[in-house]
Amino acid sequence: MISIKNVQKRFGDNIVLDDINLEIPQSNVFALIGPSGAGKSTLIRTINALEGIEEGEIIVDGSSIHHKQTDINKVRTEIGFVFQSFNLYPFLSALDNVTIAPINVKKMGKQEAQEKGKQLLESLGLGDKINSYPSQLSGGQQQRVAIARALAMDPKVMLFDEPTSALDPEMIKEVLDAIRGLAKSGMTMIVVTHEMGFAREMCDQIVFMADGKIVEVSPPDKFFTNPDSERAKSFLSKVLNH
């Protein structure tokens, strides 16, 4: 489903992604974890070309993302992306935030888009907030609107870039519950996260990154109980005992 081959990314002389190779099968959920500055967010942003790459190739469902002949705008309609900071339009209601892309990009009829948008918001526990504006919503509610907005495009893949990092602790659970629901539905997902309990519970594979490299890829039970690398052991000793 997603194939990342020999990817290298630099910012000036700084190598932020160093020969990244990763295969993500359809309907799998992968967590990207590791220390700050490891390259996790940069990697996830290269998957829909929000960041360019200097070397290598990224293929999503048969499309080479960074090939000059690829219509990246078309490909992006099939790759949902949920940011740390919601990025909702403040002057649009929750429902209008969800329906604007299907109407304007996919040319979906307004009534159909609104019906689908209402269903998505209701499925995420926001049925009573469809006419609310972002300023009237909590952070957790805004992030769930952002998830509904991404799902409204019927993506084949969902990418989450630290979706709970901007939330107060009491709001994290409602967003993680929404992502759990997607995982159970069979959506292919990559989640950059610091929520170790979520990663262990819901993900098929843990991808541990440090210093721009993938250090190891393991199933959650193995990674959290007996990681292969000393770097991962050091990381876990800090985050699990914090």
TrEMBL record:
Gene3D superfamilies reported in the protein's UniProt record: P-loop containing nucleotide triphosphate hydrolases (3.40.50.300)
Keyword Nucleotide-binding: yes
One Pfam short name: ABC_tran
Keywords: ATP-binding, Nucleotide-binding, Transport
TM annotation in the entry: none
The UniProt record lists the keyword Glycoprotein: no
A single MF term (Gene Ontology): ATP hydrolysis activity
Superkingdom, taxonomy of origin: Bacteria
Coiled-coil zones: none
Span of domain ABC transporter: 2-236
InterPro entries on file: AAA+_ATPase, ABC_ATPase_HisP-typ, ABC_transporter-like_ATP-bd, ABC_transporter-like_CS, MetN_ABC_transporter-like, P-loop_NTPase
Family the entry assigns: Belongs to the ABC transporter superfamily.
Protein name (record): Polar amino acid ABC transporter ATP-binding protein
